[in-house]
Structures are given as C-alpha cells and as structure tokens.
Design brief:
alpha+beta; Pnp Oxidase, Chain A; about 40% strand
C-alpha cells in the first residue's frame, strides 16, 4: 500500500512517518487522507495501542506524504475528541474500514508546518 500511495495509484490514502520510540528509526504507516488545509486528521483504529500513536507520544514530530509530497508537522493525540464525528470529514472508504476494524478509535491531529 505504501508504494501504491507514493506512486499515486490509489486515492484517499496518505503515509504517516513517525520515529520509532525505541529505535529512533523512521516508521511509515498508510493512513486515510485526512488533509484539511494545514491540518491532517487521522482516526487511529486501535487508539493509544496503535504503534504510531505510541511513537507520537515519544516524539510528536512527524512527516505526512499526501498529494504527492512530504509535509512535516507536529502530531497530537486527542482522546477527548469524538472520532466517529471526526470521520465524517474523512474519505468514506477508509472511514468505514476503520469503524469496522477498529477496537478503540482515537483522533490524532497533525498541525502541519507552513509551506
């Protein structure tokens, strides 16, 4: 999926890059394209148990590959946000998959750096 996103063969997806909380190595995860102006929204299927959410807790600086380019930003887990309501603005296919497969939905907001 990561290759398909990079080659822009699929729509509605992006890649989130975090730093491994133990290794410091880059970790890339396909996510739904939640770009809205200079904010990128993600609904984590497994909440605080998701590896990328734990990585964000250790180092909130991230990169997002969206619309054919990398953007940097700072991520924030929002456990008090309503993830189902948030999903209404995300691509429909990914939102359905997350609701179906998710065990503990949680919103993550990435404040993208100015271009």
């Amino acid at each position: 999926m990561k290759l398909a996103v990079r080659l822009r063969l699929v729509r509605g997806w992006a890649i989130l890059e975090t730093r491994g909380r133990r290794t410091g190595e880059p970790r890339q995860t396909p996510v739904g394209n939640g770009l809205a102006d200079d904010t990128f929204w993600i609904v984590a299927e497994h909440g605080s148990k998701a590896g990328y959410v734990r990585n964000i807790a250790a180092d909130p600086r991230v990169r997002v590959f969206v619309n054919g380019r990398w953007r940097t930003g700072t991520a924030h887990a929002l456990p008090d946000d309503d993830p189902v309501e948030r999903q209404r603005s995300l691509p429909a296919l990914n939102a359905r998959v997350v609701r179906l497969m998710g065990t503990d939905l949680m919103t993550v907001r990435v404040d993208l750096d100015p271009e």
